[in-house]
Structure formats: C-alpha cells, structure tokens
Design goal:
Chain B: It comes from Candidatus Epulonipiscium fishelsonii. Chain B: This is Peptide ABC transporter permease. Chain A: It comes from Candidatus Epulonipiscium fishelsonii. The structure holds three protein chains of three kinds. By secondary structure, chain B is an all-alpha fold. Chain B is built from 14 helices and no strands. In chain B, helix 8 crosses helix 10 (220-236) and helix 12 packs antiparallel against helix 13 (276-304). The longest helix of chain B has 32 residues, at 174-205. Chain B is flat. Chain C has one domain: Orthogonal Bundle (MetI-like fold), CATH 1.10.3720. Classes of the chains: A alpha/beta, B mainly alpha, C mainly alpha.
C-alpha cells in the first residue's frame, strides 16, 4: 500500500539574490513498511523535500506546485477508537491541520545532530513524554510508563535514571537514541531520518542504523532516509532515489542502483564511495560544483559536470527513461535515449561492482 | 549538589570576597594617605585626635588598623560626617536613604524587565513585521539615550508643561513623586532587556530543538511557551548584572534631577563638599550591593540552568 | 519531440568539465560595504555623525562669537536669528558653546577609547597568547577589577584628583579597557588554535611574528566595532560626571556641563538644557546605530535576524 506519493513537487525560496528553485519537479513513492533513501550532495534538495513533507519549510520557502498525498488505513487506536482511513494532500492542508493531524502523529522525524536537537534545559523524560501528553492527551502516569518502555526499546539502559537526566549528560549516541524515542512516542507511520548518523562516531553509526531497522520491523513503519552516505544506503534502503539539483535523476531498487547504475552522476557517487579493498589509492570525485539554482537551469543540470554530456543536454531537460527489464528502475538522462551513443560506466567502477557482486554471491 | 557545583559556587564566593577586600583596602588606603581625610585633618583639635586614635587604633601597626577598619565597616560604623552634617554618624545619614533609592531601583528593574521581556518576545515572534521594526527602533533609542535625557524630557513634559507629577521629590507623596523617576530609569532596562530577549528568542526559535518540538506535533503555543520562552528567560538572567550597573549610574543622576533624597544624591553631595567618610561609606555600600547581586545572579543562573547546575566544571 | 541532427553527439572536448561554475565571489570588504550600505540605520547614523563632527570643528571657528565671552547685557536670550541657540545666564552664545562642547565631548570620548583599545588589546593579547599561569593571574585581576562598579572607581578617582580634562579621560579609561581586553583574549584563544597559526608555529615563527601577522589582523574588525560601541558610552560617562558636578571646569564646556548648567534654570529657560540634550542624544544614537550596522555587516552570523 502506498502511504506517501509525491507528484511534480516544486519548491522555491525567496532570497536576497533572487528566487532559488530548490525543488524542480520531484516524484516519490513510499510503500508501507518499506525504506527509501534520498541520496545527493548537500544542496541537492533532499532536506527541503522532507521539510515540505513535515510542513516545516522555512518562512521564505514556498511550494509552487505539486502534491504530497498521504494515505492512511483504517486502524484502531487505544485512545480514539477506530480511525477512518483516508488520503490528504499535505500541500493543501492549513498549518493548524498539519500540526493537529499529520506532524508528530502520522509522520515523525529524526534530526541530523543529536547535540542540538534536544532542548538543553528540559530533562529527557519531559521531552519524551511531551507528544504523548499533548498530542494524545495521555495521563502523566501512563505517559511515564510508555516513555520508559520507549527508552528500553531504543536500547537505553537504566531508563528510570535517564528520564531525569539532561541532554548534556548523555553521549551523542545516547542522545540520538532519545531523539528516536521521541519520534516513536508520536506513534508515526512514517519516520523521516535526516542524516541520522552523520554526527555520530563510526562505531555508533551502525548501532543506530540497526536500531532503526529493528524498530521499523516491529512497528511496520515506512522510513525515509536522507543521506549523502551510500554506505548507509546500502545497509538500510529498499529503494534509492538519487537527487541532483532539485530533481531525482535516478530511482530504483537498491540492487538496481548499486549493481546497474545508469546515470553518470550515480556513477560518480558510487565511484566516490570509499571502500577498504580498492587497489587504486585515488578517491574518485565528481568534478565541479552543483549549479546555482538561483539561475534558470536550461537542459540537464548535470551536463557541465558530465564527461559524457551530449549536445541535447544543453538544450532540453531529459525526461525519466525506463530501464528495460525493470518497472522500478528509471533514469533521467539523454544517454538512455535510443538515439544516444552507447556509453558504459567507467572501468574502475565496473571492477568495483563486479567485486561487490562476487562477494554477495559467495 | 554535585562536587562541581560546590566548586563553582566556592570559586564565585571567593572571587566576590577578594573583590570586596580589595575595595575596602583601597578605601582604607585613601583614608590613610589623602590629605583632608578624617585621619589627616589639620583642623582637628587635640582631643578629637586622641579620640580618633583610640577609636581606630591609629597608634597600632597598619595591619591592625586595617582589621579594625573592616570590623567597624561590618557593624555599619562608617565614622562621622565632617561636611554634610557635622558630627552626625554617617550611618544615620545613609539609613533613611536606602529604602528610597532601593525602592525606585527595584521598581524600575521589575517594571523594565516585565515590559522588556514581553516586547522582546513579541518582536521575535513577529520578526520582520512593522511591529518588530517599531520595537527595534524603540530599543535602539532606549539603549542609546541616557536615562537622564529621558528624565529631563519627562520632567519638562509632565512636570512643567502639563503639571501632573511633582517636579521635586516629595517624601509625603511617595507614589506620585516616584512615577517619573521609575519610568525614566526603567526606559533603559526595557530597551536592554527587550533587545536581548528578541535576539535570544530568535536564536532559540531557529534552533534544532525547537524544530524537533515542532516536528513532534506540538501546537505553536506549546512550542513557544515550553521550549522557546523558557530557554530565552534563562539567558535573560545573565544581562541583569550589566543592567544593574547602568541603573546605579542612572539613579545617581536621576536623584539629582528630581532632588530625590537617596544614596546617589548623598554621594554627589559628599564628593562636592569633600565629606570623605560619606563618600567612602556610600562607595562601599554600592560595591557591596553590586558584588552581592552579581553573586546572587550567578548562583541563580546556576540553579536554573541545568547545564551549569549539573555541568562538568564551569 | 523534434531532435536536432547533432543532439546525440558528445559535447566532448568542446566543454571543459573541470570548469567550475563561477559564482561571483566578492571580497570580504566588498561584501562588508554592500551589507553596510543596505542598513539604513547605520547610514543615517554615519551621516549624523559626520554632520555633528563638521559642526563641532567648523562652527566655533566661523562664528563671530566666543565661547567664553561674558556679556551680561544679553544674558538668557532665547534662540533668535543672531543667537541661533540663544545665550546662557552669563550671556555667552550657546551656539558656539554647544558645538565647542560637542568637540570636547568627542575629544574626551575618542581619546579614552583609543587608550582603551591600546591597553585592553595588549592586556588581552598577553593574557590569551601566553596562557597558563600568566593568563590565570591576569584573568583573576581582570575579574576583580570588573566586579568593582565603575561608578565607585570614578567617584574615588575624583575624590583624589581635581576634575579636569585629564582626570575625566583617566576615569573613563580605567573602566573602559576591560571589554577590549576580554574581546581580544577571546579572539586570541580562538585564533591560536587555527591551523594556519599552528602552521606558522611549526615553521618556527616568532611570537611577535604570529601576534602581528596572524592574530592582530584578525581581531581588528572586532575591536573597531567594540570601540564604536564604547564611544557613545564614553560620551555618556563624561556627561554623567559633568552632571554630578564633576565636569570640566569653567569656562570650558562639554555637552555634560552645558546640560548641567542648563538644568539649573530648566523651569525658566528650558532651551538651555534641551539643545545640548538633543545633540547628545542624537550623537549617542548615531554611534550606536553605526556600531550596530558595522557589527551586522562585519559578521552576518552575529546578527540577530
């Protein structure tokens, strides 16, 4: 079942240097219980997309067109009895409706930096209990019980004592667990994780990812990961969306993206992914910088950085081409056009992927 | 209380004590060394000199003299006035003035903080609107224009042109005579507190934890009340110290303008007629007040802000 | 969809993929002035300061009247065509007195602030740069001095010394340097840890070289902004001292002494106090506006917006 469906989303920001078109026609689907990842460089628009889903765009941001349809099933809630199923377009909801019905109830979010996302002057217990007390009108005692339960669920030992702690007394990993507990206390269907592990130590990263995966299974959540780290994507995602300059340039199942990438930008990203046993000591990087979205983009935004750029790239924006043999794998590149010359991925990447495939098959 | 808290408090108290000691030492040295002070007055008669010598132990070693001096200070014996009112104990001059000065000062702080915080929060919530611009302009005006300018204008307007309030302070009509000075004094407090509250609140509103509170689905009122205002108010405590300094200087001039029989006007009188005992006593009192209040503010901040309360070290 | 003939040919060598999109990179100072220019308050403040300074320099020189010429036949004349600001109780022209008073107030404030910068900067530099015990002791001393209310320092100083231009500057200086020292030290501590300073150190640069080449240029902007905030403060303290009767002795005048003199006859001749008060208020306001603007332009992240 589709829980989230984004169609042709356009978002722009008013800034001193003019209008910045941060999101230029994004389509996205999320099914129940699945995990999708949105991958891209900073500034590609991945965070903006999720903020739009949460309805917490910055004041100068504006959704110009498109829809974000959120669908929920009929279900039973312990406090409100049976809740009817339905669909709502988040774009059309008022701020109050969003806050009352969606944000923190249907969709919750885990922020990037656990060091700053907890209120320094409020103890952990209060912060975890807040959504239960105010969103679901639970009484204090049962909220407390449930908070303890959640802290245990996210792997906090000595939960009773931690309820009284303040954020600065906890380590980064623990804080992120708390933030996840807070997100879960909202009882959401969709969990958005905005770079949930970038601010953490490598050793803790894996644990947090495991935790989210675990909870996802237990609660049958749909999860959206925002990240620039393909290592994270490989560990958690079912579907991958590669984003560049406010557009999704390649989308597909995780295997399709990792083993059969088609967009030169995805090639770049994959080649740039460091791994332990590549022989060549040179880390591949994608030349150049993302385009300035305050200026009108003509054609393919990636063309100036593309070694395989075609003349048409400077003229027309490529549509989404289906990759033959798959109904999930789509690529926005003129190289996919039947008339285009055939281009293979770089040799080094081919080798890298073959090696990965071998390891998987072993 | 954790050991770090005790360490922090201990350090603060120690610094305050040392500061007071330094001040008292300076005051004592001034008495000892300067011509024309009670200790070195050429016009003293022999009997007066003998009495002084006995009282302060001036024939004893200097350290003993210093200790005696501190002891006297501690029990409120600041010596005798030589200029303003001959042979009156300075304490008698000071005591009746304390409630007047403090009353006006405290009223101004309370009024100014309440209005300032309200304005600041309002401006932050309505950032970049007309109301915010007006509030910002007002606060720049309030921060820049000294309280005595405000006082003079108020006096001309509401004392002379439209005589609602008395021009001279009248102890029989405390309420009416206090209104203009309190307004004039609180003007700067409002501006300072308002400005600080606004910027602090804007920083808090754009913080990640407020974003998380929003993402939790709390309604706007709860986000503002439980997360933003609370954290803003904690920081506002930190600027009460500097505001206090402004208030002290401000009140000194205001007492001149409105002829308020307070400590400030006593100090000014003491300076102009060279009544050293009075000057030193009031200076000591001001220092004591200031150092004490700064200590209280710091401790209060430590109690309220969990980061300091339970923090690792400072 | 129509395609052109060469649509599906590689651009190839014709485009240099390594060319980065050149965003207009403005130099720091260009950005600084651009941001400053946008700030209406700062511009207005700057213009007011220039006008007031010009008047303070020129007006006393070109006026046919002397600031200390007593003429009892014209005492307490209200402002009119000849005496723009009127005359005081001794019949001295207030126009000349207000502007020469402004000149003295500005002179006092400027001198005090310059000395503050020099002393505070050296203190903060030594304390921050050398660290350790030196820093510890210097910080304690600074802490103690800053816990003595400046009001008390000022009055005690004035008990020892007679009120004069020098005493007032000294009094302002004694209390003003602490802020400068604090800012310098904080900046030094920050910069000391920067890579490029560490690099110079490993390359064997001397203390002096690091201080002058790496540290000073980086704290300069901060100090300028701080001093812009200190000037109105110094002007205020000067006026304050004058108002409590400890101002510059007659017949010299500063804005403070003019206000104090005018206040004595506020009920009869309010213009004597209003004019200098307004000049003082505008001057302080302008400096604060300009300082605010400079700060915001210098470091937009410090801006409260």
């Amino acid at each position: 079942m589709k829980v989230l469906e984004i169609r042709d989303l356009h978002i722009s920001f008013k800034t001193d240097s003019g209008k910045v078109k941060a999101i230029r026609g994004v389509n996205l689907d999320l099914n129940k219980g699945e995990t999708i990842a949105i991958v891209g460089e900073s500034g590609s628009g991945k965070s903006v997309t999720t903020k739009a889903i949460m309805g917490i765009l910055a004041g100068n941001g504006e959704i110009e067109k498109g829809s974000i349809n959120y669908t929920w099933e009929q279900h039973e809630s312990s406090e409100h009895g049976i809740i009817e199923g339905g669909t709502a377009d988040i774009v059309k909801l008022s701020k109050e409706e969003l806050q009352k019905n969606i944000r923190g109830r249907k969709i919750a979010m885990v922020f990037q930096d656990p060091m700053t996302s907890l209120n320094p002057t409020m103890n952990i217990g209060q912060q975890v209990m807040e959504p239960m007390l105010y969103n679901y009108n639970m009484d204090k005692k049962s909220a407390y019980e449930k908070a303890l339960e959640l802290l245990n669920l996210v792997g906090i030992t000595d939960a009773k004592k931690r309820m009284k702690s303040y954020p600065h007394q906890l380590s980064g990993g623990m804080r992120q667990r708390i933030v996840i507990a807070i997100a879960l206390s909202c009882d959401p269907y969709i969990l958005i994780c905005d770079e949930p592990t970038t601010a953490l130590d490598v050793t803790i990263q894996a644990k947090i990812l495991e935790l989210i995966k675990d909870i996802q299974k237990k609660k049958n959540l749909s999860v959206i990961y925002i990240t620039h780290d393909l290592g994270v994507v490989a560990k958690v995602a079912d579907y991958v969306n590669v984003m560049y300059a406010g557009k999704i340039v390649e989308t597909g199942k995780i295997d399709e993206i990792f083993y059969n990438p088609r967009h030169p930008y995805t090639w770049g990203l994959l080649s740039a992914m460091p791994d332990l046993d590549t022989d060549d000591s040179i880390l591949y990087t994608i030349p150049g910088n993302p385009p300035n979205l305050a200026q009108e983009v003509v054609g393919d935004a990636f063309a100036p950085r593309n070694k395989f750029a075609l003349n048409i790239d400077y003229r027309l924006e490529p549509p989404m081409f289906d990759v033959e043999g798959s109904n999930t794998h789509k690529v926005a590149s003129w190289l996919m056009h039947p008339n285009a010359p055939k281009v293979d991925m770089p040799q080094e990447l081919r080798k890298k992927i073959d090696k990965m495939l071998k390891e998987v098959n072993l | 209380m954790s050991s770090s808290t005790i360490k922090y408090l201990g350090k603060r108290i120690l610094i305050s004590a040392v500061t007071l000691l330094v001040i008292v030492a300076v005051l004592f040295l001034m008495l000892k060394l300067m011509p024309g002070t009670p200790f070195n007055d050429e016009k003293l008669t022999e009997t007066q000199k003998i009495a002084l010598y006995e009282k302060y132990g001036l024939d004893q070693p200097i350290i003993v003299q210093f200790v005696t001096y501190i002891k006297n200070m501690m029990v409120g014996d600041f010596g005798i006035s030589f200029g303003i009112s001959r042979n009156q104990p300075v304490a008698n001059l000071i005591l009746p003035r304390i409630p007047i000065s403090f009353g006006i000062g405290i009223a101004a702080v309370i009024l100014g903080t309440i209005i300032g915080v309200t304005l600041g929060i309002y401006a932050a919530k309505h950032k970049n609107t007309k109301a915010d611009t007006i509030a910002t302009l007002f606060s720049v005006l309030g921060v820049s224009v000294p309280s005595f300018v405000v006082a003079l204008l108020l006096l001309l307007l509401f004392g002379v042109q439209i005589p609602i309030f008395p021009v001279l302070f009248d102890t029989d009509n405390l309420l009416m005579s206090s209104i203009l000075p309190v307004i004039a004094l609180s003007f700067g407090v409002i501006a300072n507190v308002g400005r600080f509250t606004r910027s602090e609140m804007i920083a808090v509103l754009s913080s990640d934890y407020v974003a998380l509170a929003e993402a939790k689905g709390l309604d706007n009122k709860k986000v503002i009340r439980r997360h933003a205002i609370r954290n803003t108010l904690i920081s506002v405590i930190t600027i009460l110290g500097p505001i206090l300094v402004n208030l002290m200087t401000g009140s000194m001039v205001l007492e001149q303008i409105f002829s308020i029989p307070g400590l400030g006007s006593l100090l000014v009188k003491g300076i102009t007629v060279n009544d050293h005992n009075v000057v030193l006593a009031v200076s000591f009192l001001y220092s004591l007040l200031y150092v004490g209040l700064m200590l209280i503010i710091d401790i209060l901040y430590g109690i309220i802000d969990p980061r300091i309360r339970l923090g690792k070290g400072e | 969809m129509e395609f052109l003939e060469n649509d599906f040919e590689f651009v190839g060598e014709k485009h240099d993929i390594y060319v980065e999109e050149v965003l207009p990179v403005n130099s720091f100072w260009k950005d600084f002035f651009k941001r400053l220019k946008k700030n209406k308050g700062a511009i207005a403040g700057g213009i007011c300061i220039i006008i007031i300074v010009l008047f303070a320099i020129i007006a006393p020189a070109v006026s046919p009247f002397e600031f200390d010429k007593i003429d009892t036949s014209i005492q307490s004349t209200s402002p009119n065509g000849t005496y723009l600001f009127g005359t005081d109780v001794l019949g001295r022209d207030l126009f000349v007195r207000v502007w020469s008073g402004t000149r003295i107030s500005l002179f006092v404030a400027l001198t005090a602030v310059i000395i503050d910068i020099c002393f505070g900067m050296v203190y903060g530099l030594i304390s921050g740069y050398f660290g350790g015990k030196v820093d510890n002791i210097m910080q304690r001393v600074q802490e103690i001095i800053s816990s003595i209310p400046s009001l008390v320092i000022l009055t005690l100083l004035l008990v020892i010394m007679k009120a004069s231009l020098f005493t007032i500057i000294l009094a302002l200086m004694l209390t003003g340097w602490i802020g400068m020292a604090r800012i310098t030290r904080a900046q030094v501590l920050k910069i000391k840890e920067e890579e490029y300073v560490l690099a110079s150190k490993t390359l064997g640069a001397s203390h002096m070289f690091i201080i002058f080449k790496n540290v000073l240029p980086n704290i300069f902007g901060q100090l300028i902004i701080m001093s812009m905030f200190s000037i109105p403060n110094a002007i205020f303290y000067e006026a304050f001292l004058a108002f409590v009767g400890l101002g510059i002795p007659q017949p010299q005048a500063s804005l403070g002494t003019l206000i104090n003199d005018g206040f004595k006859t506020i009920l009869i001749t309010p213009y004597m106090v209003i004019i200098p008060v307004v000049v003082l208020a505008i001057l302080m306001l302008s400096f604060n506006l300009l300082a605010d603007g400079l700060r915001d332009a210098f470091d937009p992240t410090m801006k409260e917006a």
